[in-house]
Design goal:
about 260 residues, alpha+beta, seven-stranded mixed sheet, 8 helices, globular, binds zinc ion
Length: about 260
């Protein structure tokens, strides 16, 4: 298996995990930058992430268009990935999703979404909210061109997550494993924060020191990080696609248990 084949397999796993963990439904998508051509990235053709297979993955350029002839329909919002990957050379993978638990925080903008649980620390202390109407007026609220995608990327800045008002979120990370984990815990952190607020009183947010301590020494193939990826991949029936470049052990379930 070539390096690119393994990256495509990882992208299939990422799609299936995000679907199985209810981060995406029929909509939403995940991309990874080409390891050898930084101005290219991989993203599925227009398809529900649950259904994505190896052959559905398409290679795109930074204009959000496929680099080869492609007759199959593509995601309307593929520009999100191009815009963020273009603006952030440090980012290797991007997720866009409409997970319902984060949506209140993109609408009630006086209440910022901040990390409150240890597994939510990776979203970072600051989660900006991007509102497409600020610069583009009345639209269908979808990111359908590069100008809108670049505006979103500008709002994201150097942060890990931007909420998209009345729409969803975009998250960005240095690895596919990291962006998937962050995107799974982002809605959970939002749900817990909202639940805590219903109890009333002061909210205990994670401190910057706690966030920094959790980020320290982070590696996508550390025992702790690999554990979630391996678990979620097996849980969605993708154990057989698992591969790890560090040659570490891989646990594959004999049966799919869904
Ligand atoms: Zn969307």
């Amino acid at each position: 298996m070539s390096k690119i084949d393994n990256i495509m397999k990882d992208l299939v796993i990422a799609n299936r995990i995000l679907a199985n963990e209810d981060v995406v439904d029929a909509y939403g998508h995940v991309s990874i930058r080409h390891p050898d051509k930084p101005n290219h990235f991989f993203l599925s053709r227009s398809l529900a992430p649950e259904l994505v297979e190896f052959e559905d993955i398409v290679e795109f350029g930074m204009d959000g268009e496929p680099v080869r002839d492609e007759k199959r329909p593509l995601y309307l919002e593929r520009f999100i990935h191009a815009g963020i990957l273009e603006a952030r050379p440090d980012v290797m993978a991007v997720v866009h999703a409409h997970a319902e638990d984060i949506l209140p925080f993109g609408i009630a903008t006086d209440t910022p979404l901040r990390p409150v649980i240890h597994s939510g620390s990776f979203i970072g202390a600051n989660v900006p909210v991007w509102d497409i109407s600020e610069n583009f007026g009345d639209t269908n609220v979808l990111v359908s061109n590069m100008a809108q995608a670049r505006d979103l990327a500008k709002k994201l800045g150097g942060n890990n997550v931007a909420l998209m008002s009345a729409h969803g979120f975009a998250s960005a990370a240095k690895s596919l494993i990291e962006v998937v984990r962050m995107s799974v815990y982002l809605p959970r952190n939002a749900r817990i924060l909202q639940n805590a607020k219903t109890l009333g009183g002061e909210i205990r947010y994670l401190s910057q020191g706690e966030i920094d301590a959790r980020n320290r020494g982070y590696s996508p193939y550390s025992t702790e990080t690999w554990r979630t990826w391996e678990f979620w991949a097996n849980k969605c029936g993708c154990g057989k696609l698992l591969n790890r470049p560090d040659g570490g052990p891989i646990y594959v379930h004999e049966h799919k248990h869904k």
